[in-house]
Design brief:
Strand content: under 5%
Largest sheet: none
Radius of gyration: 23 Å
Shape: flat
């Protein structure tokens, strides 16, 4: 198992590193990757704006696929309780 080492670097520094690595045969980082990774790809639009987009420019949302968003708080307990020591039936002080 490898532990990835990450470092926050400014976009310009990452671009310079990418240009240097781009000269290698199989670069691990390119300036194009730096540009892509430094941008947010989630458009800030309301559902009505998504629905009003023409078909050729359509940005699909979960609603288009029939998926209803559920807050994580509603499903987290059902998922995580199985990993507790003693499982769901642990005797917690003050609970029983």
């Amino acid at each position: 198992r490898q532990d990835a080492k990450l470092a926050d670097v400014p976009r310009d520094v990452g671009s310079i590193i990418g240009k240097g690595m781009n000269l290698l045969g199989t670069p691990m980082l390119t300036p194009d990757q730096v540009n892509l990774w430094s941008e947010d790809f989630i458009p800030e639009m309301t559902q009505e704006e998504y629905d009003a987009l023409p078909i050729k420019d359509k940005i699909y949302t979960m609603k288009d696929f029939g998926i209803d968003a559920v807050p994580i708080e509603k499903i987290a307990f059902n998922y995580l309780h199985r990993f507790r020591v003693g499982g769901h039936f642990v005797d917690a002080p003050g609970y029983h």
